[in-house]
Amino acid sequence: MKRIRVLVADDSALMRQTLKRIIAASADLDLVGLARDGEDAVSKARELRPDVISMDINMPKLDGITALQIILQEKICPVVMVSSLTQQGTATTFECLELGAFDFVAKPDGTVSANLGLVAEELIAKLKAAASRGVLDRQQRNRERRKPYSPPSGGAFQNVTRKRAVAIGISTGGPATLQEVLPLIPADVPASLFLVQHMPPAFIASFAKRLDEHCALKVVEGRSGMLVEPSVCYVAPGGMHLCLHRKITGEVVIRTPTTPATLFVPSVGVMMASVLNIYGADTIGVLMTGIGDDGADSMVAIRQAGGHTIAESEQTAVVYGMPREAFERGGACVVAPSHEVAGEIVKAVRRTTE
Fold first, then answer.
1. 198 part of the active site
2. Domain 4-139, CATH homologous superfamily name and number
């Protein structure tokens, strides 16, 4: 099998050597070049035409954002950003994702990390996934975005008395994809939304804040004891599961346990199972881009319980892993591209009110 050709760009000699060792340890990857800054990265990308680039954000001469834009504009190859865990680093990372970066990996210890081996497996998986997907044309996808779903005459949400829930699971490629979904959901949607995005814990607060700024409905980081309300999207906190509990009064509140032990914490499957336990047939499950199968079995359970399920199609999924598993296991009532998912969610909410 042909090995994936990787170019590494980082201004730290230590980081370049660490990344070199990580890539050398993978039988599927082949390091073709090392770049010391953004200008060098663009030059080597043009010369070597790699399959994928590992790109540091903070570099001299030409920063990672500018180098990313040039490489994507010239459609050379996909780029995986390597980000620091600073507040500025998180904001810049999300900007890169919106510009078209495939995904990102966070350095465990900041700008220069001696412990990058802790995320070696994640980096290798994302480099391989990026190379297989190719350059993402975010600008074209942005042009495909639609206005918030417009209901038929008579209004979308009249005479609503039932409580509904939308459980959304997403992973690799998720932050940018969610910008094509959540901003299109009306502010008055009569359902509570619960979102699990696989992401380093330090990024979650900034991620929820960024979503809230772009959405009509309220988006918050879920906290233990928080009362669940309609027209609010609760984002799973980092390093904890997002679960629900019904009090004796009938009120539903957030719980954030650290168990059970799962591959991903928070887990889409754990969240969806908890939502289904509270809302039953009034649960709408949504599974989008991501590596693996987290949430696939819970999508099946939601459908079997009489709920409605939506899986992102291969047409737009950055990584067609999680939604494919849901579809192949029979857990998808509807399969739709990302720019149609918001409309499908709203239609599903309306369907439960009729």
1. yes
2. Response regulator (3.40.50.2300)
